[in-house]
Amino acid sequence: MYLPLKSYFLSQEKCRTVLNAFFSNECSELWLIFIYFLAVIFNDSVKIIEGDKTSFTKVSHLFVDLKNKHTNHLENDYIPLSIRSELKKLVESGQIDRSYFMGHIRNFYRNCIQYLQKYIHLYIKTKSEMGCVEQTYHQLMGQMLTTGMTLVKDSLFNKVSYVSNYIDHDVLKRWKEMKSSTEQ
User: Fold this and answer.
1) What span, in angstroms and rounded, lies between the C-alpha atoms of 117 and 111?
2) Quick check: 33 and 1 in contact, CB under 8 A?
3) What is the C-alpha separation between 96 and 27, in angstroms, rounded?
4) Which residues touch 61 (CB under 8 Å, ≥6 apart)?
5) Among residues 79, 78, 73, 173, which one has the least CA distance to residue 113?
6) Helix axes of 98-127 and 56-75: crossing angle, nearest 10 degrees
7) Mean pLDDT of residues grouped by 10 in the chain (184 residues)?
8) pTM as predicted
9) Angle at which helices 98-127 and 81-92 cross, to 10°
10) CB contact set of 60 (below 8 Å; sequence gap of 6+)
């Protein structure tokens, strides 16, 4: 699909400058593939978040996992396999500078990580509001009817507020290292 689009836009007499510049750049296809690679990762996460059986802890773990993936990508200078061979060809032919390309990849990963750090904290704070706690309360009450256990709604809100003030990436990492369950 890329080559027909490139051919079409570059053949236009009055092609917009931004499109002309984009399709004239030898890296443009690599950037599109890279963005597609990241879009798939984020899209898969969004599908899970929007699922029917999503819990507060599951979504929190998902965000931390997503941040960890991008951190690993950044630390290992990861580029998708689908663009490695083309990048190698362009570097060997002198059409692009690998360090320039990788600099942009690293910046993109850093931006994703910063966004996710902010969003994880915001998500935990937002979800500790009473509406979310009330939904969780009703889910728990449905499960607890068979066990004869009781739960006080206001107590649950206080506990969720306390946990949301305490939990951050380092705490979740320590829990994971200790193999502590966070699904309960």
Assistant:
1) 10
2) no
3) 8
4) 172, 182
5) 73
6) 160
7) 88 90 88 90 84 73 85 92 90 92 93 84 62 61 57 58 60 66 50
8) 0.62
9) 150
10) 120, 123, 124, 167, 172, 182
